[in-house]
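A.,

Following up on our hallway conversation. Structure tokens first:
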């Protein structure tokens, strides 16, 4: 089961914030992260991981439905690399 934005708001609300303040806080945090990534900068959250913007060059691809070749355009993608602490926690360490 995926953790949704509403779940995060509920967790912040459980910390004693009002529902409105919880929503504003989560939305503000996400907007800061999106804005930083849109500028091409990385987002590093200590103990959690690093979100990076990577440039992908144009390349040949294939339409899986028809099997025809096509050219995929240049684009930017967001990648995530988890921290060692998060990796250890996930692996039961």
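Then the amino acids I'd put at each of the 93 positions:
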């Amino acid at each position: 089961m995926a953790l949704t934005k509403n779940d995060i708001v509920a967790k912040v609300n459980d910390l004693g914030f009002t529902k409105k303040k919880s929503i504003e806080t989560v939305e503000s945090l996400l907007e800061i992260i999106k804005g930083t990534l849109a500028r091409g900068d990385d987002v590093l959250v200590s103990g959690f991981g690093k979100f990076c913007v990577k440039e992908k060059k144009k390349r040949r691809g294939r339409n899986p439905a028809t099997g025809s070749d096509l050219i995929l355009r240049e684009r930017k993608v967001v990648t995530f690399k988890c921290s060692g602490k998060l990796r250890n926690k996930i692996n039961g360490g």
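Residues 49 and 83 are 4 Å apart (CA to CA). Curious whether your intuition agrees with the design.

B.
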